[in-house]
Amino acid sequence: MRTLYFTQAIDDALAQAMADDPRIVVFGEDIPLLRRNLLVRFGPRRVRGTPISESAFLGTGVAAAMTGLRPVVEMYMVDFLGVCMDALLNHAAKVETFSGGKWNAPVVVRVPCGGGYGDGGQHEQSLWGWLAHIPGLTVLVPSTPADAGGLMLAALQHDGPVIFLEHKLLSQTWLEFLGSGARRTVQFDVPAKGAQGAVPQDWEPVPIGKAVLRRAGDDVTIVSVGVGVHRAIEAAEVLETEGILAGVLDLRTVSPLDKTAVREAVAQTGRLLVVDEDYEGFGLSGELSAVLLETGISCKYARVCTETTIPYARHLEDQILPNRERIYTSVRELMQ
Amino acid sequence: MTHELWSFYTFMLKSRLFEEAIANLWHDGLISGEMHLGIGEEGIIAGVVSNLREGDAMALDHRGTAALLMRGIDPVIILRELLGYPDGLCGGMGGHMHLFSKEHLAASSGIVGAEGPTANGFALSAQYLNPGAIAVAFFGDGAMNQGMLMESLNLASVWNLPVLFVCKDDGWAITTQSEKMTGGDLNERARGLGIPAVEVDGCDVSEVWEAAHPAIERARSGQGPAFLHARCVHLEGHFLGFQLLRIVRDPLREVPEIAAPLTHSLLRLGGAALRERLAGLKKVLETVLSTLRDSRRDSDIDPVRRARSTLLSEPTRLRELEEKIEQEISQVLASALAEVPS
Asked: Does the beta carbon of A42 lie under 8 angstroms from any beta carbon of chain B?
């Protein structure tokens, strides 16, 4: 076992896959600098920069994936997918169906997401529910370095389009590039176990669509992804001192959703709290309630999500994004 | 032009001192996230904005503080917005990439190229509701490769919209040199869509004004859009704390952190042949070396200094003006920081 930072782990798994599979190419804006370590190992034919032309280079990645390459297309931020959504919504996600199952587009879209560093509402969104809403897209949201590397490997082996979301608060690299700019005068509430952790010497794929129970607890099940998993664990530790035992289920994959794991956990506890940094309405949190209702599981239910456009002011942002206090307050209410 | 130059210099110096104060607050940790300053592009902003009248609109990019200041928005409330205070320009909700003033018809966006459609929409409204008013779009050279901006140039052309498209070209698209990612010539691109294009030295405020003025008057009179291509230099790089400038300014701190994993990757088993690896290394080094040779390190391209050198012919007047502006900006800073909301 080695210890790596979150982004290092993704790059390391990607490098392992690139060494094994010459079809993998990486491109995106500023990639020669951002992925310089891949560039000097695999050369400029496989690691290349693009103009600020998201709809062109994402669409190019989708079609290149249809014709033999395994492109990893990098976007600066998930918010910017708004510029080029057509390539995912109307092309990558649909080619398999349109071709009668004969053709697919195994493109990996690697894209930073999430807030907590004061960049405002156009640069800190999560949007995994928005993406998972589209049939045909696989949406991954790792919360630890080990899962991040393992899921990147799984994404590269998957025969369809995968959106790989890299939470910026877990990424020392992105936080330094966008958040601190090497300042020592700013602090972020970074979950230590998500930012750095043990990873295998040789990467194995982490199965897509499999949740993992991060913490056992019989009183209530907290389901989350990404940074929310760590916030939930921290809240569960506080709740334990009050005698409330909260289990924490890390979905790891938003689509396909591990419905079995959710149903089994909630059937046991009878209480579900969804912690979702993505928007509250019409998203993951509502979907989880449907997953239970469809199989006749009744439970007490609450959710802690982002309800509005994310404010710029740091103290407001901290209140809007799911935080420990909101989580343990909601659990206490569920227990009454 | 010397008469106007005094007024341009006033605009530019205020903006420069204001943004230097912003930089200090950012370094002190009082401003969060990415902070993109207009330091170095004041000549372009002053030369264009000084042509605007009431009813004209501005579509701004993520680097909009200079334009808002020169348009007459209270600098105290801009600063309080950047500090995230509830009485800031946008109630602390927008932040520096998302600054809006309905009163001044000014809207910013952190989405590269979004200024094109926004300016077109402002101009379309003007055609119906306020003939004679115009819209300005400010964007960088990187944005010229964004589909929505290219589409907007075409739409403005065929709808004859009163828009001045201003490309503030510093040669860089974040850490990428634009010339390596841009096919053809930007002016020819605009001309190809039927829009007259003018190329100016953006570090010379008078030259910018001379080009912007007839283009704006032309648009006002219903003769359609124009494209102003103005070269400039962002003296603080893409944003504060910009990694490429850090490497150049503090190599002892930055280089070891970058060099160790780079060397490891270069030598690691598995991967490309040595020739390809060296080509990769060359690309990384080229980016850093072009920052070293970058005109950012050359103070002659500073539009504020350039204007000042002409105004030095009246040293007393210049000293009095500068003292007044310095005093004004320190008062702005004091007022903005006076009351910290609880």
From this structure: yes
